[in-house]
Amino acid sequence: MLLKHQSFLAILLFLFITLISCKNTEDTPQPAHQTQNLSLKMSTVIGNKPIDFTSVFTTEAGARYTLSSFRYYVSDIRLVKQDGSEFPITGKYLLINPATEDYDLGQIPVGDYKGLKFAVGIDSITNHADPTVHPATNPLAIQSPGMHWSWNAGYIFLMMEGSCDTTDTNTDVQTFGQFSHPMFYHIGMDMLYREVNLDNISFAVNASDKKTLHVQANLNKFFTGIDIKTENASHTMGSMPLATKLTNNIQTMFSVIQ
Amino acid sequence: MRSLAFSYGYHFVAVRNYFIYYIPCVLLLLTSCKKDKEDEAIEKGNMVITLQLPKGFLYPDIPPDNLPTQNRIELGKLLFFDPILSRDSTISCGTCHLPDKLFADKLPKSIGIEGRIGERNAPSLLNVAYQPSLFWDGGNPTLEQQVLAPIDNHNEMDFDVNKVVERLKKHAQYPLLFQKAYNQEPSVYALTRAIACFERTLYGGSSAYDEYSDKKPNALTPSQINGMNLFFGEEGECFHCHTGFTFTDNSFRNNGLYQVYADSGRARITQNPSDIGKFKVPSLRNVEKTSPYMHDGSMATLEEVIDHYSKGGHKHPNKSPIIQPLNLTDQQKDDLISFLKALTDR
Predict the structure, then answer these.
(1) pLDDT band at A185 (very low <50, low <70, confident <90, very high)
(2) Which of A130, A141, A191 sits opposite B145 (nearest CB)?
(3) Other C-beta atoms lying within 10 Å of the C-beta of residue B219
(4) How many CB atoms sit inside 10 A of residue B172's CB?
(5) B281 and which of A83, A166, B203, B241 could share a cystine (Cβ 3.0–4.6 Å)?
(6) Residues in B 6-35 with any Cβ partner in A closer than 8 A
(7) Superfamily holding B208-341
(8) Taking CB atoms and an 8 Å cutoff, what residues of chain A touch B160?
(9) Which residue of B has its CA nearest to A238?
């Protein structure tokens, strides 16, 4: 009850603030003390090495691989305030790509926060909506290379592609930078939509400075319990057990760098 | 080429603008009412038209943002038959959906780019406007979105729709045609809409059976009438699934084709084991001309299909309980086949 009441008040307050700030933009400058711009810095590492698309990496189980593509959707982002209430960043769908690190989240209320939640994937309604209606600049538009399945209409939540060494002795030789066996994981479908909950963090958003929150994905965690010598291909459909294992790993691969 | 061809159009516009600036208000109103010929043609081409349907067919549901106009249908038709949509510019939609083969291809499994063989049999696109979902497994929800699938399918066109759009933008004719039809430059949105708009003009419903339904009792032979009674009666039970004016209830069913399915069908979409081997009930209009049959083109003739139903198909946990051995006599089989042939358009 109390929680409900509080979030109701928070929403009211937020609405009130937006109203005021809308009104204010016309005559006086926006009061600087209420909101601040927040951006997410999304970085990807393998252990302590930053991701790149030329190196040979090794899973913690000791298998070698290379990457040629790694992208995923982040949505339903919420910031958890010290009092436990959540500030949702509505309507933002980010297509995270290692080539871009910074993603603007817009204005958020100034204050102290203790958590970040987001989903890897796209909510079921948007997932099955028509992707062709979005302008090309929207992350939900058809991408090149694609992040949408047309034969089972819906988005690919996470795509990783590369190659792997499937020999027992790790002796496969690379040709044009690739091992002889392709490796690809195309993870999607409503049932694999998962929330990532990063609690036990604390950060302040001040009126004076733009805030950047740094979230890191560690691909070593993505491969926890995965033997890429055999488990190296999934279109989700047709290999649900592997896709589910990977999805559960996705939930654990993020941390906030403070 | 392009600027030459259309320079007249620009010239007229410029002249009119000139008048707008220098002629008094009353005259201005008059001139703007009097449109030049090209404008008039565009306007006519942009009028929403009523689709011509076979007698007795319901008007199909059409998305409000893609109502049919002449310009849209013509653009869609050009695109449908244009191999520009495929990576190496060799394959068009019409490669596998041929007008003289009722918009199917007569192959067990379609052949796309570089001779690659696909996974399933290409259905006829006649009456596709009535399909609530596309593909044998219903994996795609609208004709508009379906256009994306063959373009990026590895075995079909093996391309990237954004690259198709880049090609169309550079093309000599397409930019103007897109402008006229959808008031925008070539885009994924307009490309998918135009092709869908064209597909909604494809119907088949002028068969002997349609004449018979239209109160011409002599349109069917006695054997066809016997077959019809089997088809719609509790003896044949075909109508439970192949029903309505399109001869499908659009449901997903397992008709006992296999004991073990190589293609899991509807289960590929739902991941539900109870959907294994279920496929969208196909329309039977023009079925005489669209062999081979079934989702994988595994049956070459209608005789094989009728034998299958007569025996009741293979055992499968998901097989529809309606599919039971019918033990048809040879005469009954002939009659059923003659009836199926009465569904061929004249």
Answers:
(1) very high
(2) A130
(3) 18
(4) 9
(5) B241
(6) none
(7) Cytochrome c-like domain (1.10.760.10)
(8) 144-146
(9) B268
Question: Are residues B166 and B178 in contact, defined by beta-carbon separation less than 8 angstroms?
Answer: no
CA distance B146 to chain A (A): 7
CATH class of B64-199: mainly alpha
pTM, full prediction:
0.88
List all residues 6 or more positions away from B13 whose beta carbon is below 8 Å from its beta carbon. none
- What residue in B sits closest to A133 (Cα-Cα)? B189
Nearest to A131 by CA among B140, B163, B154: B140
Show residues of chain A in contact with B141, CB under 8 Å.
128, 153
Which class for B107: exposed (0-12), middle (13-18), buried (19 or more C-beta within 10 A)?
middle
Contact B115, B109 (CB under 8 A): no
Question: Taking CA atoms, what residue in B is nearest to A149?
Answer: B149
In chain A, what are the domain boundaries? 36-257
The domains of chain B are located at 2-32, 64-199, 208-341
Are B325 and B311 contacting, i.e. CB atoms less than 8 angstroms apart?
yes
Q: Is the pLDDT of residue A1 over 50?
A: no
- In order of B104, B153, B298, the CA distances from B111 in angstroms are 12, 12, 15
- The DSSP bridge pattern shows strands A181-188 and A233-234 to be parallel
Fold match between domain B64-199 and domain B208-341: yes
Whether the predicted interface score ipTM is above 0.90: no
Which structure tokens are listed for A83?
Answer: 């009092």
Chain B hits for A191, CB-CB cut-off 8 Å, are 271
Q: Does the beta carbon of A128 lie under 8 angstroms from any beta carbon of chain B?
A: yes
Per-residue pLDDT of chain B in tens (346 residues, 90 and over written 9): 333 333 333 333 333 343 333 334 444 444 444 556 767 777 889 999 999 999 999 999 999 999 999 999 999 999 999 999 999 999 999 999 999 999 999 999 999 999 999 999 999 999 999 999 999 999 999 999 999 999 999 999 999 999 999 999 999 999 999 999 999 999 999 999 999 999 999 999 999 999 999 999 999 999 999 999 999 999 999 999 999 999 999 999 999 999 999 999 999 999 999 999 999 999 999 999 999 999 999 999 999 999 999 999 999 999 999 999 999 999 999 999 999 999 999 9
Quickly list DSSP for chain A. -HHHHHHHHHHHHHHHHHHHHHHHHHHSPPPTTTEEEEEEEEEEEETTEEP-SSS-EE-TTS-EEEEEEEEEEEEEEEEEETTS-EEEEEEEEEEE-TT--EEEEEEEESEEEEEEEEEES--HHHHTS-GGGS-TTSTTSPPSS--EETTTTEEEEEEEEEEE--STTS-PPPBTTB-SEEEEEEEESGGG-EEEEE-S--EEE-SSS-EEEEEEEEHHHHTTT--TTT--EE-STT-HHHHHHHHHHHTTSEEEE-
Q: Which tokens belong to B117? A: 């063989």
